[in-house]
Automatic annotation (TrEMBL), chains A, B:
Residues covered by the 3-dehydroquinate synthase N-terminal domain: 67-179
Subcellular location: Cytoplasm
Gene3D superfamilies assigned to the protein according to its UniProt record, in alphabetical order: 3.40.50.1970, Dehydroquinate synthase-like - alpha domain (1.20.1090.10)
Protein species of origin: Pelomicrobium methylotrophicum
Gene: aroB
Function recorded in the entry: Catalyzes the conversion of 3-deoxy-D-arabino-heptulosonate 7-phosphate (DAHP) to dehydroquinate (DHQ).
Catalysed transformations (reactions): 7-phospho-2-dehydro-3-deoxy-D-arabino-heptonate = 3-dehydroquinate + phosphate
Chain positions recorded as Zn(2+) binding sites: E184, H247, H264
Name used for this protein in its record: 3-dehydroquinate synthase
GO function terms (MF aspect): 3-dehydroquinate synthase activity; metal ion binding; nucleotide binding
Length: 362, 362
C-alpha cells in the first residue's frame, strides 16, 4: 500500500494505492461524520464490487444510496446526469452527503460533476476500478460530461477528498480496458518521465500479464507524475495542458466515431501517434523516437492508426477543443520521449500530411 | 458612481454601482484581451439594453455573441441551460471567451452556471438590470438552475470577474419587480443592519418612487452588507446562511406554486414573515419587531401572507432545502430587527401554528 499526496493547499488530498483497500474501513474513515453516502457505479462494476464497498461503509455506520448507471462513454451525457440528480433528490441526499464514484473514467467524470453541482457541491470520493481511472482520470479534479459537439465540454474542476485505488479490481478488468489504460500510463513517460518510458519498454508484457507488483509500480509512478503536474497547475493555465498529449486528436476520434466506439485510451494512443507524426514532420521529433512510441503502443495492443475521418472533418471536430485560442488549435507536440510542449503553429498542410500518413488501415 | 470590493483573495472582484455604466467602456475594460464575448439576456431585457451593451463592447473591439433566453423563473432549468451550451458551442466560444449576464436574477443564475461549467469554467461578468439582482443575486458567486423537486438544487459557487450595476436600468423595471427586489434590501436590515432598517422605514415611499439618490444608497448599502458576509464565508459554512432568511419557506412557496407564479422576492417576504412568526412563537422575537417588519413589507407592496399549501406539503417541500442536515430542516430565525441566527430546533407544532397564522387570505 502506498499513499501519495496531491498538494493543493486547502484542497489537498491523498491517493491511496494498494491491494484490499475496498474492504478496509480505514481508507473510508474520512467520510465518517456522514451517516449516509451515495455510491455511483455502473451495471458492470456494480455487481462485482458494490456489495464489498457497501459492507465496508456499513462497518463505519454509513448507509449506502446506490445509483447504478449504464456502462460506457455513450452514457456520459445529460440524460444520465439527470438520473443521478433525480436519485439524489428522491433519496433526500443532503449537502453533507458524500458521493463516491465506484468505477472507471466515465463513472468518475459524471459522478464528480454531479458532486460538483448537486446543491452547489457536496463531498466527493474517487474509488477507481479501471487502470485508466487509477492512473489518470480519478486524480486532478477534472469532471465532465460530453456534448454531441465535443467531448468533456461541460464540466468543472472539483477535487475529490481522496482517491482510493484498490488494485485488486484490475483482476476483473477486461483485456481491452487494461490496454486502453496503458495509453495513459505511457503518456507520462512521453511527456516528462523518460526513465519511466524505458521501464515500460522493459516491462510491458509483464504489465499486460497483470503482475501485481509491476502494475502497482506503474500506477504509483503515474499518479506521482499526475499529482506533481496538478499541484503546479490545477486549472490548466500552463503545464497541465501537456497531459492532453494525443487528446486533441483523440477527442476528435471519439466524437467523430460516436462516443464509446473507440475506448478513450485507444483514441489517445492513435491521437498521440498523430501528434508525434506532426512533431516529426515539423523537424521537432527525431523519427526514431516516433518509432519507439509506435512500437510500445503495438506491444500494448493499442491502435497506432487513426480512423480515416478526412482532414476537413478532423479540423471541424478539433475546432471545439478546449485548448483552442483565438480560433487557433493548440497542439501538444513532442521534442523527444520525455519532453512535450504546446504549439499553436501547426500549418494545415502538415496536419493533412499527418492524417494521410497515420489514418485508415494503412 | 461607487465601487465596492468583494475580498476573496485571488477571487476578489469589484462591484461598480452607478448611472450610465452600460455605455461607458471603462467598466468593461477588464474583458479587453478577449475579442469576443457571449452576452446572455432575456426577451424582455434584450430589446431594452442589449444594443447599448453591444456598442460599448464593440468600442473595446469585442464582438458580441448574443444568447437570448425566455423571461422568467420557469425557464431557469435544464432546457434553457442546454440552449445556452448549444449556442456557445455553435459559435465556437472558447475557454477564454467571457460570458456576460445582462438581466435579473434568473439570467445571472443560469448564465453564471453556464460560465462555471462550459469547458470547465470561463470568465464571467454580472451586468444586473433589476433591483433584486443589483442588491443580492449578482454578488457572491451563487449560480444555479432549478429542479422540479427543489429550487436552485443544481449549481456552483462561481465568482464573477466584476459586477457592473447600471442603476439607469431600474427606470424600466416593472413596479412588481421593483417591489420584489425590495424584499432582499429589507433582508439586510433584518439580519445584521438595524440602522439600515430604520433608514428604510424612513424612506420606503421615496425608494418606490425611484428617487435616484435613495436607490443608489440602498443598493450600495445592500452590496456592502453582502460583500462583507461573502468575504467572511464564501461557501456558506456559517454566517452566509443568514442571507437565506425567509428563503427556506420562500423556496417552498416558489416550488410548490410552480416556478414563476410568485416572484422570488415576494416569496421571500411572505417566507420571512413565517420565519418571524416562528421566532415570535418560540419567544425569541418580540412581537413589536414582527409587527414592524410586516408593516414595512406592506408599505413596500409585498405580500405578508403565504399561500395555503398545507403544513404537510410545506414540510415535504422544505425537506429538499440545501440547509437540511441529518434530516433536520435548519431555519434562519430572528432575535430582533438586526440580528438573525440558524436553528435546527423548531418543533413541528410551532411550524403548524405559524402556517395557520400566516397562510391563506387571512
Amino acid at each position: 500500500m502506498q499513499t501519495l499526496n496531491v498538494a493543493l493547499g486547502e484542497r489537498s488530498y491523498p491517493i491511496h494505492v494498494g491491494s484490499g483497500l475496498l474492504t478496509d474501513p480505514r481508507w473510508f474513515a474520512a467520510l465518517a461524520p456522514a451517516r449516509r453516502a451515495a455510491v455511483v457505479t455502473n451495471t458492470t462494476v456494480g455487481p462485482l464490487y458494490l456489495a464489498r464497498l457497501r459492507q465496508t461503509l456499513e462497518a463505519l455506520g454509513i448507509a449506502c444510496v446506490e445509483i447504478v448507471i449504464p456502462d460506457g462513454e455513450a452514457f456520459k451525457n445529460w440524460e444520465t446526469l439527470h438520473r443521478i440528480f433525480d436519485a439524489l433528490l428522491t433519496h433526500r441526499c443532503e449537502r453533507s452527503t458524500p458521493i463516491l464514484a465506484l468505477g472507471g473514467g466515465v463513472v468518475g467524470d459524471i459522478a464528480g460533476f454531479a458532486a460538483a453541482t448537486y446543491q452547489r457541491g457536496v463531498p466527493f470520493y474517487q474509488v477507481p476500478t479501471t487502470l485508466l481511472a487509477q492512473v489518470d482520470s480519478s486524480v486532478g479534479g477534472k469532471t465532465a460530461i460530453n456534448h454531441p459537439l465535443g467531448k468533456n465540454m461541460i464540466g468543472a474542476f472539483y477535487q475529490p477528498g481522496a482517491v482510493i485505488a484498490d488494485t485488486d479490481t484490475l483482476g476483473t478488468l477486461p483485456e481491452r480496458e487494461l490496454k486502453a489504460g496503458m495509453a495513459e500510463v505511457i503518456k507520462y513517460g512521453l511527456i516528462r518521465d523518460a526513465e519511466f518510458f524505458d521501464w515500460l519498454e522493459a516491462n510491458m508484457e509483464r504489465l499486460l500479464a497483470r503482475d501485481d507488483e509491476m502494475l502497482g509500480f506503474a500506477i504509483v509512478r503515474s499518479c506521482a507524475n499526475k499529482a506533481q503536474i496538478v499541484a503546479a497547475d490545477e486549472r490548466e493555465a500552463g503545464v497541465r495542458a501537456l497531459l492532453n498529449l494525443g487528446h486533441t486528436f483523440g477527442h476528435a476520434i471519439e466524437t467523430g466515431l460516436g462516443y464509446g466506439e473507440w475506448l478513450h485510451g485507444e483514441a489517445v494512443a492513435a491521437g498521440t501517434v498523430l501528434a508525434a507524426e506532426v512533431s516529426a514532420r515539423l523537424g521537432l521529433l527525431p523519427r526514431e523516437h516516433l518509432e519507439r512510441l509506435v512500437a510500445l503502443y503495438r506491444r500494448a495492443g493499442l491502435p497506432t492508426r487513426a480512423p480515416d475521418l478526412g482532414t476537413e472533418r478532423y479540423l471541424a471536430l478539433m475546432g471545439h477543443d478546449k485548448k483552442v485560442q483565438e480560433g487557433k488549435i493548440r497542439f501538444v507536440l513532442l521534442k523527444r520521449i520525455g519532453e512535450a510542449f504546446v504549439s499553436a503553429d501547426v500549418p494545415q498542410a502538415v496536419l493533412a500530411q499527418a492524417f494521410a500518413a497515420c489514418c485508415g488501415d494503412g
